[in-house]
Structure formats: structure tokens, C-alpha cells
Amino acid sequence: MDKGSTGMTIGIDLGDRKSHVCVLDADGKVVKRDIVQTTRTAFEGWFGKRARCRVVLEASGHSRWSSRLLLELGFEVLVANPRRLPEIYGQTRKNDPLDAERLARLGRLDPGLLHPIEHRSDAAQLGLVAIKVREALVRTRTRLVTSIRGTAKMFGIRVPACDAAQFHRKAAEALTDELLGMVQPLIDTLDELAVRIKACEKQLEEFAREVYPETEQLRQVAGVGPITSLAFVLTIENPKRFKRSRDVAPYLGLVPKQDQSGSIDKELGITKAGNKLLRGLLVQSAQYILGRFGPDSDLKRWALPKTEGSKAAKKRATIGLARRLAVLLHRLWVTGEEYQPLGYGTQPAA
Predict the structure, then answer these.
(1) Which residue, 181, 211, 241, sits at the end of a domain?
(2) How many CB atoms are closer than 10 A to CB 128?
(3) Which of 36, 42, 230, 295 is the most exposed place for a label (fewest CB within 10 A)?
(4) What's the predicted TM-score (pTM) here?
(5) Residue 186 φ/ψ, nearest 5 degrees
(6) Same domain, yes or no, for 102 and 128?
(7) Distances 2 to 74, 75, 172 between C-alpha atoms, Å
């Protein structure tokens, strides 16, 4: 679809309550600026009476529903990737009306400059919400465990190392009666969190098995459980969107940043683009593979020698292994091959 018979382009800076709108004509002249309430009713009223054209907005908490509404109204919609818009975020003079205008100008000039994204389906998004709920519970448990351990240390008490799900029992045994009485609310909360986290994990495993059976293909790799495999499938959603399996790693932010000029090529950290939750789960899987319980595999043999020397070396090896793991999972998903830990063809470069 082109920009419509009017040749106009509309840029929207989405705000939590109000959104700024800028309309450019075919010659790039600003013909209208306005402020619209960020609600379905207000958007339907404002855009419903406009000539259909190209609309540009950036990915945000409101971009999901607003972009779909505009598509339903007949507009061509481009959702810009905010991480790839230095033209907007690198400005010294920045405000909502100007951001709306810049979005419109970029969309009018070359949509490729926006690095447009596509929102996931409702089913995939709901599945990711369930995973995020479990993740939030786990983070809360970690904070409570850290708090109790820190309190115990002040009294010369060290709670034995144990699985997080069992910490509330170990802490109750290790603490004095007086101290236990003070932290009992935290102990009780940890007890309840253990039950809720276990219930979430059971629900997610059933969901993966019944709705996304392809996750079983990914779980052939030791260290990749139901949650990681489900998060991978829901995040990628369509594996054919990538021409090569190795293209998954940049999409998930697992490749190094680049800053090269002439003979200078700086060594930088990973980009951390894409889904933070999945990236963290892949790193956890990589840590398991590298750990003492991780079985022998080509992945482990590749990464283990790279961990020697320092903590930084181990961190780089873990990230590198997570990157290769992402590539491998996509390959297994696309090909449907049976995975062999040792001698699985030519290991994908990452």
C-alpha cells in the first residue's frame, strides 16, 4: 500500500494519557498538529474521519492496540523500533510534538530507517505474560531470600546453601527463635511463593505441551526446559521470518555491538536488543550446560575452555554459548531434526 491518494504521512508520539499528532502533506509541509487522548474512542473519532494514508508510531505500551485499530480503519501503519531511532533519541532538542514530526518525516522519506517491527499475536503475547508472571514471582523470592540472608549475617548466622524453593525451611531451622519471630512474615511469604511458582510452572508446562508441541523439539537440548523452549517459540513465533538460523542471535541482542572505523575496532558488550526475558533464560540454560550437572556435549566442549582465566572470560563464554544455543534451537525448530549432543552435524556458527 502506498501513502494514499492524498500523499500525506501522519506521525504519532504515543503518550500514556495524551498523544501528539503531526500531519505532513505530499511535499513534507506540516499541515496539522494536534493532541489526541490515548484511548480507543478518541483514536477512532480522530482518525475515522481522516483520509487513509501512512501512519508512523513507535513501539510502546500503547502501540499494540493503537496500531491494530489503525489497520482496521484502513491506514498503512509502521511501528518504529525505538532502539533504532537515533534521529529522535539523539537530539538535543526533544519534545513530543517534534518527536511526532520526526516520525512522520522518517516514514515519508524511507520506512527502512524506522526498522519497523510487527507485534506478536494475542495468543503469543498472552503466553509471554504468563511467563513474565512466573518471572516476577521468582524475582520477588530472590529479593526476600537475599534480605533474610543479609539479616542473618548481622547476627553471625549463615543459612546453608540450598535450592530457593526450600530456603524458607532451611532458614526457619537455622535462625534463632527471637530472630525467626522478626522475619516470620518473610518466611511465610516465601512458603506461599514456592507454592505459586510451582503452580505457574506446571501450568506453563501443560500449556506448552498442549498448545505449542514444537517446544518438545527444542527440549532435546539439555538445559532447555519447558519455560525456555516456550519463551523461545512465543518470542520468535514464526521461525521462517529468519532466512538463516544465525540471524536469531542479533534479533535477541546476543551479538557484540560494533564501533569500527579504519584500523580501530573496539571490543564492546552485546547489544541487548530484543526480548530481555528470553535472553536471560538462554543465559541460564548456558550456565546449566557449563555447570557440573550439564552433560557432555559439543556445546559444552566448545565453551568450557573459554571460561578459563577470569570471571570476565567465563561471562563471555556463557554469553557466547547462549548465542550458539539460540542458533541451535532455531535450527532444530525449522528442520525437525533429532538432536545429538555429540557430533550433531556441523555446529552452527554464532
Answers:
(1) 211
(2) 20
(3) 295
(4) 0.84
(5) -70, -40
(6) no
(7) 12, 10, 67
